[in-house]
Amino acid sequence: ETGVTQSPTHLIKTRGQQVTLRCSSQSGHNTVSWYQQALGQGPQFIFQYYREEENGRGNFPPRFSGLQFPNYSSELNVNALELDDSALYLCASSPDPGIRNEQFFGPGTRLTVL
Amino acid sequence: QKEVEQNSGPLSVPEGAIASLNCTYSDRGSQSFFWYRQYSGKSPELIMFIYSNGDKEDGRFTAQLNKASQYVSLLIRDSQPSDSATYLCAVNNRGTGNQFYFGTGTSLTVIP
Hints:
- The complex is a heterodimer.
- Chain A has no helices and 11 strands.
- Chain A has strands spanning 5-7, 10-13, 19-24, 31-37, 44-50, 53-57, 64-68, 74-78, 87-94, 104-105, 109-113.
- In chain A, the strands form 2 sheets. In chain A, strands 2, 4, 5, 6, 9, 10 and 11 form a 7-stranded mixed beta sheet that branches.
- By secondary structure, chain B is mostly beta strands.
- In chain B, 0% of the residues lie in helices and 56% in strands.
- In chain B, the strands form 2 sheets. In chain B, strands 2, 4, 5, 9, 10 and 11 form a 6-stranded mixed beta sheet that branches. In chain B, strands 1-3-8-7-6 form a 5-stranded antiparallel beta sheet, with no helix packed on it.
- In chain B, a hairpin with a 5-residue loop joins β9 and β10.
- Chain B is globular and about 45 Å long.
- Chains A and B meet through β5, β6 and β10 of A and β4, β5, β9 and β10 of B.
């Protein structure tokens, strides 16, 4: 166990809806990253937050947005859900965004869009 | 060209043998390199990280990095059936907007 928690575990939404996923980082970690992992693929980097500011973003449209709170927990929001958004969403925390930026993953949220 | 390339496998080795997993990356500015293990239905688990050229050993695992060749590998000695999983290679470049890239993973099966 990494100490990173995510909620909910599973979620079913319909196309066009909005969803919010939550992540609590490991104690002592101030950096949170979000990933999307489709079946049979490696995780794809969505964005990273460091001390409540976005600190890097992958190739995802603006309808994917995020927040980090003062306690370093984080939210991922996805608007206007599409069928292709169905995936495992992973949150990872790290001690800092510097060179020692090894990331520890939570259990993930499985999102199904119908 | 993908940012991180791995042989998808499957790679099969007998119990007790050495498993060798390879990864190449395209961004020459990458600074940090990671190996994760992912069991089916679970999230990735960090095994090794390496920042400098050369070898880094941790128990049965050895990571090797060659930045000139843009190549990183993972050796698993004395492979056990519990090592059967998908192994993901990941790289990070903090300079160009702080990007993280994962490969699609190599499936390893250790045969008892």
